[in-house]
Design brief:
Belongs to the EMP24/GP25L family. By secondary structure, the chain is α+β, with helices and mostly antiparallel strands. 47% of the residues lie in helices and 30% in strands. It is built from 3 helices and 8 strands, in the order αββββββββαα.
Length: 204
């Protein structure tokens, strides 16, 4: 039992490190300025973003979250902690923006968690009465599921990029052919004009 628990814990730890699901840092925003951060999140992945003004700093800041299509998911302001939890129904770069409404600079702590890190397992433990080893097994299962989703998202992105490259190659080829035809026609017209001009002048 102990060896199994240790194995699950090790696997959970390694998977968490590999997925790099948490980002946390401090930032100082100039007066009346807006800063945006991008986080690439695969489809159907849970995420939590938090903005917390540092002690002694003004709370007159605004948090907005937009999906990859530019639709606003949330807008919060004037709170001791701005926190928003969501599920990414569209994969891609999600935009998290912070606006300083003060005439002085404001320092805050920014945090974003995705995937398993953003999931609350306390409710699952309460509802299902899980033991610690079962919670670890559930986390590993969720991590594997998330990893599959992210790999599927990357493969789909790669296919999309290939299609775009093929379209660009086709357009470049068509443009090249048209350019050659236009240059050939232009050269033919110039030669014809010069021949007629020299004949008219009785040079040839």
């Amino acid at each position: 039992m102990k060896s199994r628990l240790s194995l699950l814990s090790l696997l959970a730890c390694c998977t968490s490190v590999a997925l790099a699901e948490k980002l946390n840092f401090q930032y100082t925003l100039s007066p009346l300025m807006n800063i945006c951060f991008l986080q690439n999140i695969a489809e159907n992945i849970q995420a939590i973003t938090e903005v917390t003004p540092l002690p002694g700093q003004s709370q007159n800041i605004q948090l907005t979250v937009n999906d990859p299509k530019g639709r606003q998911l949330a807008s919060q302001e004037n709170q001791a902690k701005l926190r928003y939890q969501f599920t990414s129904y569209v994969g891609g770069n999600h935009q998290v923006c912070v606006l300083n409404r003060e005439n002085q600079q404001v320092s805050f702590e920014f945090m974003i968690q995705t995937g398993v890190e953003a999931k609350d397992y306390s409710n699952i433990i309460t509802k299902k009465h899980l033991r610690p080893i079962e919670v670890q097994a559930q986390k590993v299962q969720d991590m594997v599921r998330q990893l599959r989703q992210e790999l599927s998202y990357l493969v789909a992105n790669e296919e999309s990029l290939k299609e775009q490259n093929q379209k660009i190659k086709s357009r470049v080829l068509i443009f090249g052919v048209i350019s050659v035809l236009v240059m050939g026609a232009s050269t033919y017209l110039q030669i014809s004009y010069l021949k007629n001009f020299f004949r008219y002048k009785k040079i040839i």
